[in-house]
Inverse folding.
């Protein structure tokens, strides 16, 4: 990858994180407020998804017609379409963890530098979880 | 259903969502990649190693975001009532789950739904459903 792609990745990560902060999603209480349908419900997260997907629909439609990116990189859009137990069990486990603490990967990382000990503890455990996955996968192969 | 009007922030959440969408749009249009946080982070741990630099650059930007934001505006207040044990359990579940599920809120929820992918819709329904169920159990069954 060329240096311009590396810089683009840096800028995109920064913009993504600022979007998370602006949206309120770096606040775990706002996320669990959305997940609490039976309590006092905060619909904000649905507006975050709506805003992001409105832009994303256009971008991915354009991207899907290209074989190279605007910076001449191969288009690496996912090709998997299988809906299997692995996908669903993984996503269910993720959802339970998400509901427990109100953190998903993006907001946790975008809170590391500002949020005190909690996002640090969560992120350390998340990395451990990802490492466990790698070990199990390597054993399987 | 009762709306929590005191905390509901439709406009800033929509605006933040548009920024997230723009980030995902730039990433796919210029780098040809999906802006999925769990995949970008987890890919650093996978074997064989490759394409490490852009992943680190993306994550550096994401981690630096509150510092950049804080230069211009005061950071919003955050609240969390999770203790250490809950944070550790939640982190482990999110780490393992997003890797087996091949994505999280960004990769499946934002990018996958934008691509109209049935697989990502299934994953999103699964993790949203599990999230709703978990909070319901914590706040209304066990509390």
């Amino acid at each position: 990858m060329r240096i311009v792609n590396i810089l683009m990745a840096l800028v995109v990560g920064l913009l993504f994180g600022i979007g998370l902060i602006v949206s309120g999603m770096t606040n775990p209480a706002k996320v669990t407020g959305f997940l609490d349908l039976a309590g006092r419900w905060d619909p904000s997260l649905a507006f975050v998804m709506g805003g992001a997907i409105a832009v994303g629909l256009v971008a991915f439609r354009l991207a899907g017609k290209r074989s190279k990116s605007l910076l001449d990189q191969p288009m690496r859009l996912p090709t998997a379409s299988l809906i299997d137990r692995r996908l669903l069990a993984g996503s269910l486990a993720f959802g339970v963890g998400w509901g427990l603490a109100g953190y998903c990967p993006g907001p946790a990382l975008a809170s590391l530098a500002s949020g005190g000990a909690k996002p640090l503890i969560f992120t350390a455990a998340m990395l451990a979880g990802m490492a466990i996955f790698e070990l199990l996968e390597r054993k399987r192969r | 259903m009762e709306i929590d009007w005191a905390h509901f922030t439709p406009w800033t959440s929509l605006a933040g969502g548009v920024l997230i969408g723009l980030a995902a749009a730039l990433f796919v249009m210029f780098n040809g990649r999906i802006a999925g946080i769990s995949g970008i982070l987890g890919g650093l741990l996978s074997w064989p190693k490759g394409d490490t630099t852009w992943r680190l650059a993306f994550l550096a930007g994401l981690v630096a975001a509150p510092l950049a934001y804080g230069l211009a505006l005061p950071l919003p207040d955050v609240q969390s009532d999770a203790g250490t044990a809950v944070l550790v359990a939640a982190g482990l579940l999110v780490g393992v789950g997003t890797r087996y599920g091949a994505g999280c809120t960004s990769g499946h929820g934002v990018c996958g739904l934008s691509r109209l992918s049935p697989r990502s819709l299934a994953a999103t329904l699964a993790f949203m459903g599990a999230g709703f169920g978990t909070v319901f159990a914590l706040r209304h069954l066990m509390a």
User: Anything to note?
Assistant: Chain A has one domain: 3-140. Residues 3-140 of chain A form one domain. DSSP finds six helices and one strand in chain A. The longest strand of chain A covers residues 40-41.
